[in-house]
Structure formats: C-alpha cells, structure tokens
Design brief:
Elements lengths: L1 H10 L3 H10 L22 E3 L9 H6 L9 E5 L5 E5 L7 H11 L6 E2 L13 H10 L11 H4 L2 E5 L19 H13 L9 E7 L5 E4 L11 E7 L1 E6 L9 E5 L4 E4 L8 E7 L2 E4 L9 H4 L11 H11 L3 E7 L12 H5 L35
Antiparallel strand pairs: 1-2, 2-3, 3-11, 4-5, 5-6, 6-14, 7-12, 8-11, 8-14, 9-10, 9-12
Helix pairs in contact: 4-9
This protein binds N-oxalylglycine and manganese (II) ion (MN).
C-alpha cells in the first residue's frame, strides 16, 4: 500500500512536471518569453555576472583546447542557484568542429560503451562512423532509408561507465577517459574555482529534434563536492533547472552550441531536465570552420586540431538536426574508493557488478529510463 501511494504521489502533477510539459508541448507552441537567454548579454534581476579565476590558465593554454582567453568569457550565475555557472560559448571561433567531430567520430569508438552495444555485438558497433559516413554524405534520396548507426546513437559513456540499470558506477567497469576532454574540463573547472578536477566519467547524449531528457538528479557520483560539467553542441535546447524537490518550479534557459554549464555547490544536486530541442537561432554560424582564428593562434602542441573537409561534411549534416550534450563528472573524491557491494560479500544483488545487460531497466517513474533503448531517447517523467 505504502509503495502504491508513493508511486501515485511520485507520478502526480508536481510543479516541475507541469513546466516540463509546458515547454515540451508542440501544439500550440508554448510562450518562450520567460526563457533566460545568456547569449543576449543581459544581466537582470535573475542573471548575475560570475567571477572567474583568469590566473589558472594562460591564453595559449586556453587556445590549445579551443577556448578564448578566460577574461573574454561571458560567465553568469543565476539568482537563487548558488554554485551554478553558465558560460556562454567560450570557444574560439573554429574550434567547435573539433569537439563535434570527437563526439560523433571518436568518442563512440571502443572501448567506450554506447546504447547500440546493448543489443549488437562489439564487431557490429565497432565502427559506427565508418558504417554511417557514406549514407550521411549523400543527399537523402527521397525514399525512406534505414537509419544509420550514427543516427541511432543515443548515448555513449566514458571512463567509469554509468550503469543505467543499477544507477551506479563501479571500479570494474572503467576504461581510460579521453585526455583531450579531460584537459578541456579541468581547465574550465579550474577557472571556475575548482582546481584538481578529475574527469572520471562522461555521458554523451545525442538528441534529435523531437528528443527530450526526463527530470532527474545526478547523484550517482560518490563525491558531490566536485562540480559537474556540461557542454552543448549543435542545435539549441531548453534546460530546466529546479530545486531539491519536484515541487520547486524550475527556471528555464536556452542552451546554444558551445555553451558550458558548471553545476557545483548547492546546485550540484538539483532536479533538471531538457524538455525541448530548438533550432539554433542564427543557424550554426558559430560552427563555421572558416574565419578560423585557431590555426593562427596556435603554433604547437595543440589538443584541438583541424577537422578534414570530409569529416566536417558528415558532422555538419548531422548537427543540422541534432544536438549533442557532453557531461563530465568526477566520481570519487581524493583518495576515495568504491564501497564494496553487498554482492561481493553475500552473492545477492547480482546485477550490481554485471555491468550492462540486455533486458530493459524496469525503472520507476521519475527516474531516467534509457538503458538499452535506441528508439526512445528518454522517457518524459
Ligand atoms: C545529463 C544531463 C543535460 C543535457 O546527461 O545528466 O542532464 O543538456 N544532460 O543534455
Ligand atoms: Mn543530468
């Protein structure tokens, strides 16, 4: 009985759910006038400038990972959300194509794990890019063609691979975290006042124009004093940032290509969601490779390198209709280890250490439900 009552309460109309549905609605389209747009430089009653530490990296170090000098970043906080920092596209012109290419071509490769691995063999998922690029390069023929693997990609995990079923990370399910993405993440977090950030887990989300991400809190990491970093590329989205409970009405904001969010301190454990993907406001001009200030500002030892014309043709076609989000998380505090699971002692709770398995996670309402699905991105809660 108690469980039943709890599930009714949980699926009831809370304030967050109402606003999520409001922004997700197609017909009639919602009024977007309350959505905070950090790209329109307007500190207001809600938006306040955020202080950064520009001494943590030189302009050359910033440029190596494709970032503008820290003093040029437009960083904001939100009234009522201590620890939340929004950096409005700090990337150098010409550097986003590198990161987009990494997200579409490099990070989906083994040993990283993706949704397609849940029901395909490693040999079938080992060259997602190679198996998709030809179809994505040629213009659509008009007749319905089967979706390429790249178009069916919904998530990729890096480092400590998040287990969607158990909602845990484990010591035994870990592969090396990409060094370029770690360098980018540690530079940004340092400038935000968090030196010594370890990028230990990453989740990439691939959104089509009708995708959404349900209401959730990221609490599986063991050290919540470390920030969580989020990067957006491609099409825009509405992000809802709520409170510690679902009765708290969330604040809506736009995320555009290149925007970076840092969730730290009291904002690290707030409910959030992505109810809607929206066309990028000025097309994707920010993603042009031309007018590239990059090559000239970099002489050597750069992380961000050029993207070939052929690769960019595929990437730019893909992001015409899609959004990619990368979240980077530190899982363990300094010197911290994973606790021993009950299964390692008692042989119960068997799927704790199994990693991914084929059956769909039977998660309850209100939790992210992604698991092995490659047709439904996430379930609205
Ligand atoms: C997540 C997340 C938000 C986004 O992956 O945990 O909240 O912008 N992503 O896609
Ligand atoms: Mn999240």
């Amino acid at each position: 009985m108690a469980k039943m009552a709890a599930s009714i309460v949980e699926s009831g109309e809370d304030a967050f759910r109402k606003i999520f549905k409001f922004y997700k609605r197609r017909n009639p389209p919602p009024d977007f006038s309350d959505v905070v747009d950090f790209s329109k430089n307007a500190p207001s009653d809600k938006v306040v400038p955020a202080k950064l530490d520009a001494s943590t990296m030189s302009d050359v170090e910033a440029a190596r990972v494709g970032l503008q000098p820290v003093r040029a970043w437009r960083a904001f906080g939100l009234q009522g959300y201590p620890g939340f920092i929004f950096i409005s596209n700090p990337f150098l012109r010409g550097s986003q194509p590198y990161w987009v290419r990494q997200c579409l071509k490099t990070y989906p490769q083994k040993p990283n794990i993706c949704n397609l691995d849940m029901h395909m063999s490693p040999s079938d998922t080992q060259d997602i890019w190679g198996k998709s690029e030809h179809s994505l390069r040629v213009p659509p023929s008009g007749k319905r063609e089967p979706k390429t693997l790249l178009e069916r990609l919904r998530w990729v995990t890096l480092g400590y691979h998040y287990n969607w079923d158990t909602k845990t990370y484990s010591a035994s399910n870990c592969t090396p975290f990409p060094s370029d993405l770690h360098l980018l993440s540690s530079q940004i977090t340092a400038a935000c006042g968090f030196p010594g950030f370890n990028s230990e887990a990453g989740i990439l989300n691939y959104y089509r124009s009708d995708s959404s991400l349900g209401i959730h809190v990221d609490e599986s990491e063991l050290d919540h004093s470390r920030p969580l970093l989020s990067f957006s590329f491609g099409q825009s989205a509405i992000f809802l940032l709520g409170g510690t409970c679902r009765q708290d009405a969330p604040t809506a904001m736009y995320m555009h290509s290149g925007d970076v969010m840092v969730m730290s301190g009291q904002s690290r454990l707030l409910y959030h969601a992505v109810p809607r993907i929206l066309p990028a406001p000025q097309g994707l001009g920010v993603l042009e490779m031309e007018g590239c200030t990059l090559a000239s500002s970099l002489q050597e030892s750069t992380v961000v390198g050029p993207v070939s014309e052929e690769d960019w043709a595929v990437c730019s076609r893909y992001i015409q209709s899609s959004r990619v989000n990368v979240t980077v998380r530190q899982v363990l505090g300094p010197g911290q280890n994973f606790p021993e699971t009950p299964s390692s002692h008692q042989g119960t709770d068997t799927d704790k250490e199994v990693g991914y398995h084929e059956e769909r996670a039977d998660t309850e309402n209100g939790k992210r439900k992604r698991g092995d699905s490659d047709t439904v991105d996430t379930v609205e809660t």
